[in-house]
Amino acid sequence: MTVELGPIIAAFIAGGFIAGIVMFLTMKARAKSLSKTPSEDSLQVISDLMPQMTWVSDVDGTVTYSNERWCEYLGLAREEIWSTGWAAAVHPDDLGPTLEICRVSKEQSSTMEMHYRLKNVKTGEYEWHLARAVPELDEQGQVRRWLGSCMNMHDFKLSVDAIQQSESLFSSVFNVSPYPIVVCTPEGRVERVNAAWLKMWGVSKSELV
User: Fold this and answer.
1) Judgement on whether residues 133 and 70 belong to the same structural domain of the protein
2) N- or C-end of the chain: fewer Cβ atoms within 10 A?
């Protein structure tokens, strides 16, 4: 929004220099307020509607903003999160590695990515999250602040772990089975055989390649 010059010039003519300056500052402040406030309010609403937890910190890593998701998940007020509340909610085994990643990223002004468990205030359980933060640079290329987000990936992590455990169990049974077992593709190409199969045919794995 621009400041109209007509009323300001009229104020200078009718009331003198001081009246003109007052009119100018008043209209400038009003224009700034009208142009800035809706934008900030909109960003706040959008941030609070996001399913992810978002945050902003200064150069030293002190949190200066967090959206409503943080408050809901941790059961803390924004002021508590901005101090050390978020760190107290991190699983003790994950806090050290998390702080180390933050330290290295701040030293190198590089994107940070980390996995850690946060305590859900509603269930009392620790759940896995993926957190990422990028530095916002000023005109001189120096870090001005950090912009970050944190996404709950607990169900995905449990699914991956279950698949890996299932694969590990299958491999154990597959390898120790006294019966010859072979796994083939639909085209008939051998993908996997166990020790009993190799013994039965008197071949080695290298000969199957």
Assistant:
1) yes
2) C
Q: What is the 3-state secondary structure (H, E, C) of the chain?
A: CCCCCHHHHHHHHHHCHHHHHHHHHHHHHHHHHHHHHHHHHHHHHHHHHCCCEEEEECCCCCEEEECHHHHHHHCCCHHHHHHHHHHHCECHHHHHHHHHHHHHHHHHCCCEEEEEEEECCCCCCEEEEEEEEEEEECCCCCEEEEEEEEEECHHHHHHHHHHHHHHHHHHHHHHHCCCCCEEECCCCCEEEECHHHHHHHCCCHHHHC
Containing structural domain, residue 203: 177-208
Span 158-163, mean pLDDT? Answer: 78
The reported pTM is 0.58
Domain shared by 54 and 29, yes or no: no
